[in-house]
Amino acid sequence: MIILHGLLGSSRNWQTTGRDLAARYHVLALDLRNHGSSPHAPEMNYEVLVADVIAWMDRQNIARATILGHSMGGKTAMLLACRHPERVERLIVVDIAPKDYQWIAHRAEFAAMHELDLAHLKSRAEAELRFEARVTDWAMRKFLVTNLERVDGGGWKWQINLPALTQALPVLEATPLKETDRFEGPTQFIVGGRSHYVYSEDHDTIRRHFPAAQIATVAESGHNPHMETREEFVRTVFAQS
């Protein structure tokens, strides 16, 4: 199983859930470009993300795998499955649909990150306090500061490529799929019941691109069921294994 994280996330977000999923899979969680420990690059769109994953699979001699993607990683996984179906044993998409998401623009979060004075920052806790004016959700503030990294000799830097991600936001918010894109293989969509990312009216669109899709709702979860309701999320993945 290859896990692809969401925007501003990294493989670290999947360590605990990945260990649970390892009961049935050999789990490999990647850092997508401009995130985590992966290289920074000015080009940032779903086509290059898919190319990165395929190239990595080739280097690892992985011919086929179950691909699990969350949010931005879910869009990457959908495009990979449609364009390279021979590489996908099973597709699992977590709380994202093949549609545009301009209304979830993350503008406040990105503005807060750009405004943060890294030169005089003392701690991640201080960064959280400075984010309060723009980012009202405490969990999101904690999530954002996971991208702060200590600099040798003191100080902080963003581990993500903040300029490239900011410029790419309109592309990342849009669906990467064309009307003709389809994946006929086993597919599971896992949706957070308290999330605003996937609604029942999106199911027809999902099945148009993924005719074999089974759609499961984790009732008590928001956008991050792998973190908010981890045990039920893992049971849901295993139910369709």
Structure description:
The protein is globular and about 50 Å long. Strands 2-1-3-4-7-8 form a six-stranded parallel sheet, with helices on both faces. The protein has ten helices and eight strands. Helix 2 (46-59) crosses helix 3 and helix 5 crosses helix 6. It folds into two domains: 2-99 and 175-239, Alpha/Beta hydrolase fold, catalytic domain (Rossmann fold), CATH 3.40.50.1820; 107-167, no CATH class. The model has no long low-confidence stretch (mean pLDDT 96). With 241 residues, the chain is of the alpha/beta class.
Task: Provide key terms for this protein.
globular; 2 domains; about 240 residues; single chain; 10 helices; Rossmann fold
Summarize the structure.
By secondary structure, this protein is α/β, with parallel strands linked by helices. It is built from ten helices and eight strands. The strands form two sheets. A six-stranded parallel β-sheet has the order 2-1-3-4-7-8, sandwiched between helices. A two-stranded antiparallel ribbon has the order 5-6.
Order of helices and strands: EHEHEHEHHHEEHEHEHH
Secondary-structure-based class equals: alpha/beta
Strand content: 15-25%
How large is the count of helical segments?
Answer: 10
Helix content: 25-40%
Query: Could you say what the CATH topology of the largest domain is called?
Result: Rossmann fold
- Number of individual domains: 2
Radius of gyration: 18 Å
General shape: globular
* CATH homologous group name of the largest domain: Alpha/Beta hydrolase fold, catalytic domain
CATH second-level architecture of the largest domain: 3-Layer(aba) Sandwich
Q: Main sheet: which strands, in order across?
A: 2-1-3-4-7-8
The CATH top-level class label of the largest domain:
Alpha Beta
Let me know the average pLDDT: 96
